[in-house]
């Protein structure tokens, strides 16, 4: 069978653009199926290990910085890149002090070339936006604090 690599690449790009997990095309006797695996949970990376300084006494351990408590913050449902506005020239969806209702778009998380609007799950006032525009975010990372 002669494989059309351009077609396979085009189908793979289409998977990424649409968020589909598999696509299959048939042309006469030729049949091509392209699929990608979906992880059930994101992979967490371990902190990098650094070598001890050469010679001398070991360095004192650096103080551990604890993350601030953001109980009740709206958290990221996925790994991706956060955008605070619909496009670079548009104003941010929300800022501290804004009133929000259930369903209001707070920001967008781009994952695999798909723009996912993140909406408020409750009414309240935005206390703080905890991320910067175009910042990578992890699954379950606090994004917006609403009181």
UniProtKB/TrEMBL annotation:
Keywords on record = Biotin, Fatty acid biosynthesis, Fatty acid metabolism, Lipid biosynthesis, Lipid metabolism
A Pfam family this protein belongs to?
A: Biotin_lipoyl
GO BP: any one term: fatty acid biosynthetic process
Residue ranges of every copy of the Lipoyl-binding domain listed in the record: 71-147
Ranges for the region named Disordered are 50-71
Quote the function comment for this protein.
This protein is a component of the acetyl coenzyme A carboxylase complex; first, biotin carboxylase catalyzes the carboxylation of the carrier protein and then the transcarboxylase transfers the carboxyl group to form malonyl-CoA.
Matching PANTHER family, A to Z?
OXALOACETATE DECARBOXYLASE ALPHA CHAIN (PTHR45266:SF3)
What name does UniProt use for this protein?
Biotin carboxyl carrier protein of acetyl-CoA carboxylase
Source species? Allopontixanthobacter sediminis
Q: Which gene encodes it?
A: accB
């Amino acid at each position: 069978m002669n494989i059309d690599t351009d077609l396979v690449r085009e189908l793979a790009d289409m998977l990424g653009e649409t968020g589909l997990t598999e696509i299959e095309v048939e042309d006469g006797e030729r049949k091509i199926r392209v699929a990608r695996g979906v992880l059930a949970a994101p992979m967490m990376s371990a902190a990098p290990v650094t070598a001890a300084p050469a010679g001398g006494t070991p360095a004192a351990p650096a103080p551990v910085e604890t993350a601030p408590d953001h109980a009740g913050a709206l958290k990221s449902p996925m790994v991706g890149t956060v955008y605070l506005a619909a496009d670079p020239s548009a104003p941010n969806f929300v800022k501290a002090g804004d009133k929000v209702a259930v369903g209001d778009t707070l920001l967008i998380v781009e994952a695999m070339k798909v723009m996912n609007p993140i909406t408020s799950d409750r009414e309240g006032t935005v206390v703080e936006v905890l991320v910067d525009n175009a910042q990578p975010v992890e699954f379950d990372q606090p994004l917006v604090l609403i009181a």
